[in-house]
Amino acid sequence: MIERKAAILFMIPALVVLIGISVVPTVRAVKMSFENRELRYQTQQYVGLENYRKLFSDRRFLNSVRVSALWELVTVGSTIPLAMLLAFFLFEYVPVGARRMMQIILILPVVVPRVSAAYIWRYIYSPIVGIVEYVLRILHAQPIAVLSDPQAALLAVSVVDVWQWATLFSIIFLGVLQSLPPGPLEAARVDGARNWQVHRYIVLPSIVSPLVSLTLVKMVESLRSFDLIYIMTEGGPGIVTETLDLYAYTTGIGLEGRVSYASSMAVLMLLGTLVTFGGVWTLSQRWRSS
Amino acid sequence: MKKLVVYLLVGIIAFIAVFPIAWTVLGSFKDLRDLVSPVPKFVFKPTLANYAAVFAREGIRRGLQNSIIVTLSALTLGVVLGVPAAYAVSKMPARAKQQLQFFPLSLRFLPPVAIAIPFITLWLDVGWYDTHLALIITYLLISVSTIMWLSMAPFESIPISCQEAAKLDGCSYTQVFLRISLPLALPNLTGGFVFAFILIWNELLLALSLTSTNVTLPVSVAAIAAIGKELPWGMVNAAAITLLIPPLILVRFLGRSMSSAFFGS
Predict the structure, then answer these.
(1) What is the model's pTM?
(2) Is B8 exposed, middle or buried, given 0-12, 13-18 or 19+ CB atoms closer than 10 A?
(3) CA nearest to B114 within chain A
(4) Cβ B243–A288 below 8 Å, yes or no?
(5) Is residue B255 less than 8 Å (CB to CB) from chain A?
(6) In chain A, at which end, N or C, are there fewer CB atoms within 10 A of the end residue's CB?
(7) What is the extent of the structural domain holding B149?
(8) What is the pLDDT of residue A107?
(9) CATH number of the structural domain spanning residue B199
(10) Complex ipTM value
């Protein structure tokens, strides 16, 4: 009984703090989204669903939803397959010693602060001093300022995201592959299965669950495109790279200070994240228990 | 032949991962003439002028100082609150444990902009906007949840027998924790601490939203982008590298925490 009391005392401070600093802002965001608060005025009123109604006729908001969806598609859609390909390559062909070294190298990009990563790649892409420009010049190709090109800008920024995450995820996938029991793989090989058959029929089914949960993790993680886009393009040229979080920042925090309006976007993002995250957890629990 | 192709590919992959960082490190030691040279220079006379220019900026010096204060405070509080909580949770029955594990992990995935907006008005209303305290409290969301989540597995892997023996010798719950479990788990706990440090050190959006003069280093480094269309590359490179040094030094202490951070350990 005393032990139980002690255990509760150990947990209470952390749980109170976590609940406090997550519930208070969430409730506040919901409440503000029904008001018309702006940072430059002292007063606010209840306006019901007005903000949400405005959102759905706000073309710039709809654009940012479209850009975010595209960003999700490009970053998740290239991170996961690339990471898997890399992991399979390291697992199948690279001897253990070199593999260890690669594990150390491949973890580097993800610890680079996104602010630094954004500058590092802006330097590479720079139309004046950039190394990409130099390579294009040698190849006699038309040099372009990728970050101010409406067609290429979003793709160029997403390269940075994929550079950081595909490298990390390849190590995580490699860990999953290394933890597979070798028995079934060898049995299949002895039975004369081809390499692709072993992958398709034995490896793939046993990594489906971590694969799905990592995909969902990346989907949630990709919602945080702010740092890269803020520094590399500021949403430009025009608004072609303006994602949801950048638009919410510009309206709510940046110059405009329309916190209530931005809150309604925040609430929608929270809902989306919660639903996705619930999925991640359920799946990863199922994977662990199976 | 096959071996050659494999090593060639390994080389290319390592190059892609490391080159952007290395190229910026080189760029941070170049003077203007070497930076704008039409043919990229790998051999040049290095200069420290860019770093001098970075640290001559008042904003950067303040940012560095504030980042150190805020990150270390949030981390310390995160350890003090998160580690005992993780210990208590790790000793609970499986069902309760699962529920309690979900909570800190789910907080890791809240979209920062959705947190930043309500926190601005909250800190404005209480009069704490632009203070260290407000930023530290906000960052507890990251530090407590990350440390609590990543500290559970290290405690679970301690053999029960040691703790049982200590209990028979008359040690209380707190004594078992302080004398037996904590020292045994400590080597495996540090990975989680390092992970939390890196997350907070690198954080931009919350700091950008919740401060105006008491900025952190990522905010003051990001502010250089506003200077003009084409950037002062020497200084920008030096600033980006300055910000990147702590995580790069700490990366080897991450251990397994990086992959456990994303799902079951």
Answers:
(1) 0.91
(2) exposed
(3) A266
(4) no
(5) no
(6) N
(7) 56-215+243-260
(8) 92
(9) 1.10.3720.10
(10) 0.91
